[in-house]
Specification:
Blueprint lengths: L1 E10 L5 H10 L12 E9 L8 E9 L6 H8 L4 E7 L3 H5 L1 H10 L7 E7 L11 H4 L1
Parallel strand pairs: 1-3, 1-4, 4-5
Antiparallel strand pairs: 2-3
């Protein structure tokens, strides 16, 4: 059987949400920044171990724009998620501090629902420019 999960990928502009999704889905990394307009939708099939109840998981990844002009659309989508990835950029401490606002937006639109969420530290390969320590990130 197949489990389908809607996964919202959220965070401030330029934290690398689209790069994360493209890497997960296509094994592709684009070095040029292109702002996401509204949202982008991708599907990733994950084959599960034979012993698992579900043989396949279909992840519906929704990469949402971080810009303020898209916040209403973004927050509307947050209320329709099964899982949320909140992404920050380790080279930009403001993106880490603003995770609290993203979390509040998720909570406000999912009252009474048990929603799974993960915080993702992105751009960790830029160690020499990191301004958010792994301890703070945890």
């Amino acid at each position: 059987s197949i489990l389908r999960a809607r996964v919202i990928v959220a965070g401030e502009p330029t934290v690398g949400k689209t790069c994360l999704v493209n890497q997960a889905v296509n094994k592709n990394f684009n070095h040029q920044y292109m702002m996401t307009q509204g949202c982008e939708y991708h599907v990733k099939d994950v084959q599960m171990d034979e012993s698992d109840h579900y043989k396949r998981v279909e992840l519906h990844l929704i990469d949402i724009a971080g810009q303020n002009i898209f916040k209403e659309i973004t927050f509307e989508l947050l209320g329709k998620a099964n899982m949320v990835l909140l992404v920050y950029d380790v080279t930009n401490p403001d993106t880490f501090q603003l995770l609290r606002q993203w979390l509040e937006g998720v909570k406000a639109r999912n009252e009474g629902r048990n929603l799974t969420g993960v915080v993702v530290a992105n751009k960790v390969d830029l160690e020499n420019r990191a301004q958010v320590s792994s301890q703070n990130g945890q």
